[in-house]
Amino acid sequence: MKDFKYYTPTFVRFGKGTENETGELLKRFGAHSVLVIYGSDRVVESGLIGEILDQMDELGIAHAELGGVVPNPRLSKVREGISIGKEKNADFVLAVGGGSVIDTAKAVGYGLPDDGDVWDFYKKIRKPVTAVPVGCVLTLSATGSVMSDSSVISNLETGEKLGLNSDLCRPAFAVMNPQLTMSVGPYQTASGSTDIMMHTMERYFNREGNLGLTDMIAKGVVKTIMENTPKVLEDPDDYDARAEIMWAEALSHNGLTGCGGDGGDWACHKIQHELSAMYDVAHGAGLAAIWGTWARYVYREIPDRFYKFAVDIMDVEPSEDREAVILEGIRRTEEFFRSIGMPVSIRELGPDPDEEALNALADNCSRSVGGSIGSARKLFRDDFYNIYKQAL
Amino acid sequence: MKDFKYYTPTFVRFGKGTENETGELLKRFGAHSVLVIYGSDRVVESGLIGEILDQMDELGIAHAELGGVVPNPRLSKVREGISIGKEKNADFVLAVGGGSVIDTAKAVGYGLPDDGDVWDFYKKIRKPVTAVPVGCVLTLSATGSVMSDSSVISNLETGEKLGLNSDLCRPAFAVMNPQLTMSVGPYQTASGSTDIMMHTMERYFNREGNLGLTDMIAKGVVKTIMENTPKVLEDPDDYDARAEIMWAEALSHNGLTGCGGDGGDWACHKIQHELSAMYDVAHGAGLAAIWGTWARYVYREIPDRFYKFAVDIMDVEPSEDREAVILEGIRRTEEFFRSIGMPVSIRELGPDPDEEALNALADNCSRSVGGSIGSARKLFRDDFYNIYKQAL
């Protein structure tokens, strides 16, 4: 087992009607002037934003709003938020939405106390040393940003999609009411579930070898998603299934499923980020589209991990023909993705990149990761090209 | 799934040699004057205390020491710590040891900013509103106090052993080096493992019904203990096994294994506390001595939970004779306790209470829990008597 640090300071309030405690939580965490960030009109039309603003009014907490955050959230919106927040002397940023909204709020949190360009942090030109705290009211189970140290922002001017990891941005609190996710449609629900699974699987496929408790928790997260996603696709109002998925979301990306590992692989995330940057596809769906290809490309490097994954998580019968077991494990994972309406190839996902686009994707990915990435297998520019091509 | 809150702000630094980072962690968490608390001479003789004091000296952090904390830690020692800490204006309490030392440090943390009697908090006469922060360097895997909100203190004058739960005492940081537990002897190691298992099992046996992810994490914790305890009894220097147990310790009692449940049963803990208060027996060993009796006393009330426990965690073959499956699950748990050298009756534990003592234990337990306790089955004074008697 490798050494690790584990730090999840987020105060989680989970359950029915917990959004009614948002005002009290803001007060508890010292907010006086709050920038409220949201995305779709769904949260306005449902009355959620209005209720939360009312709570703040009652407690004498000042507020400003910024709506219109879109999936694969944009730097331009972050800059808009920083500008409004500075004008209002915001000392707290409240995200009401899913991962894109939370990631935007985190980026605004970095930018508010800083005089320079926030994109410098994402470009790793400068390191943030402080941040305005962020709280979340989660309305979509997907990215795990609700307890994570990461945010990912797209710069449409440069075509870059870059992530930044720092404990500074771990949310101070998270309001998690599974009922708020019941209006999320089937494609977005399935895409979110895929993202949740993948946050654990990225950490699972690493070179440290088989772990004990961490592997069992990883299995728990993946099984939870596989058992409950079909249930919510069948009945979107299934509270317990929505709750299981939402809790899995938080634990899958707060670090818990990586404790003792080597940090994880993360190549799939980076390969997918370029698809999202070029074609604006849903992140989880993009991951489903390439994972199987990636897995078949790298499994020979860490066969014990892929074998354990197949037998322990995908319930493949153990056999002396270990390669057959591994390949069956990969096939079952893709079969699950298909069963929840996810693509398992890039064309099924939507895009149909030609040779030039494939090369551009590979170049972009290589640049974005600084040449190479991967724990299971270290991948370089030509590997990215091969994976995009084989995943068509 | 029931609503819940989840809050584990403790910064965990886990791995080899991490005790060398203690000084830096104290600095990071704002300590200027530290009261260092420890128990046995083991931590002095090993040089650990000296190394940590040296780190503080190098960083200009003032310190005072309090040694001699014993298992079932005592109020008298807590008062001594508060007195020393006040004299030295301590703004941080560092526990170097296991659960007894950490619980003492937490109690001192409550007492330092308070002008009244700290025992008032444990008697629930007053509620603490603030506390001096606590950090831990863990040397024994057992109580889970390292990330928990609880501390349990014994008052020898009154014969009371009382717990106090509050987020105020969750440690600011925890240094967890599994190597520091290698010198712990077999009985104490096994007793610690039992305590770890029981923190999850107390939460598992509740009336909310079967959960998904939380149950899978609970299974992971119990399986981790059952797989790794025999390994460290065989080879005390098995790093990975020590590490798995240590990590299971933290997760078993930080709230994770109870998320979505009804809070848990906790009758076994209370029944055992009275044995410890009267006979000063090891907490984990005391739990092993009574658990099977308790389980057979209550299982009919929540048969689904006991059935799932038997099949899913104790690997009993499913059968239509559900009662036989349940009883086999209980038998296998006791068999495991025996296999690691733990008692499964009070006489095996050591004490041999006569009729008068049994009645005193039942009276004390009833008084300490305010009349009744239990989720699986609500137990009263005569139930406590029956369980003590049947567990003889």
Task: Sum up the structure in keywords.
392 residues; 2 domains; Dehydroquinate synthase-like, alpha domain; two-stranded antiparallel sheet; Rossmann fold; globular; six-stranded parallel beta sheet; 49% helix; homodimer; alpha/beta
Main sheet attributes: strand count, strand direction, barrel closure of chain A: 6 strands, parallel
Oligomer: homodimer
Shape assignment of chain A: globular
Question: Structural class of the helix and strand makeup of chain A?
Answer: alpha/beta
Kindly report the average pLDDT value of chain A.
96
Helix residue percentage of chain A: 40-55%
Q: How many separate domains of chain A?
A: 2
**Superfamily (CATH H level) name of the largest domain in chain A:** Dehydroquinate synthase-like - alpha domain
Spans of chain A with pLDDT under 50 lasting ≥5 residues? none
CATH architecture field of the largest domain in chain A: Up-down Bundle
Kindly state the number of beta strands of chain A: 8
Distance between the termini of chain A: 37 Å
Structure description:
2 copies of one chain form a homodimer. Chain A has 392 residues and is an alpha/beta fold. Chain A has 2 domains: 11-180, Rossmann fold (3-Layer(aba) Sandwich); 185-390, Up-down Bundle (Dehydroquinate synthase-like, alpha domain), CATH 1.20.1090.10. Chain A contains 16 helices and 8 strands. Chain A has helices at residues 22-28, 42-45, 48-58, 75-87, 99-111, 119-122, 186-204, 213-234, 239-253, 267-279, 283-298, 303-313, 322-339, 346-349, 355-368, 381-390, and strands at residues 4-14, 33-38, 62-66, 92-97, 134-138, 150-155, 160-165, 173-176. In chain A, a hairpin with a 4-residue loop joins strand 6 and strand 7. The radius of gyration of chain A is 20 Å and the shape is globular. At the A-B interface, strand 1, helix 8 and helix 9 of A face strand 1, helix 8 and helix 9 of B.
